[in-house]
Design a protein that fits this description.
Layout (H helix, E strand, L loop, with lengths): L41 H23 L4 H37 L1 H20 L1
């Protein structure tokens, strides 16, 4: 990243606190908005997340209907595996897109992306 590309983190509303405006589409690869590694598969990801959401609703229904504990736990395991699979897919896309782009820039940008990906992997392993 060059000095003219210095980033600020957008606030909860997606606005840049220093500039007071929403970042432009395609601005950067971190936080905020723009083309990310998963953008090309966005519809497939949303479909997958809706399916996982349905599994979670099924869990709520099972508890509401007093379904046997082990059956509920089996569904919890299936939902957890579905989320883990989604996370791994997203991580792979991040490595192929964001980290690969940072590798082309090299230097501090690459170091930051590798550290960021390593931290994400650590969070996934702890979950």
């Amino acid at each position: 990243m060059t000095t003219t590309q210095a980033r600020t983190e957008p606030d909860a509303h997606g606005t840049d606190p220093q500039a007071g405006q929403t970042p432009a589409a395609g601005a950067g690869h971190h936080g905020g908005h723009g083309p990310h590694g998963y953008s090309a598969q966005k519809d497939a990801h949303l479909k997958r997340l809706r399916r996982i959401e349905g599994q979670i609703r099924g869990l709520q229904r099972m508890v509401d209907e007093d379904v046997y504990c082990i059956d509920v736990l089996t569904q919890v395991s299936a939902s957890t595996k579905a989320l883990q699979s989604f996370a791994l897919s997203l991580l792979e896309e991040h490595l192929r897109h964001c980290v690969a782009a940072a590798a082309e820039e090299g230097g501090a940008e690459l170091e930051a992306k590798v550290a960021e990906a390593t931290a994400a992997i650590g969070r996934l392993l702890r979950s």
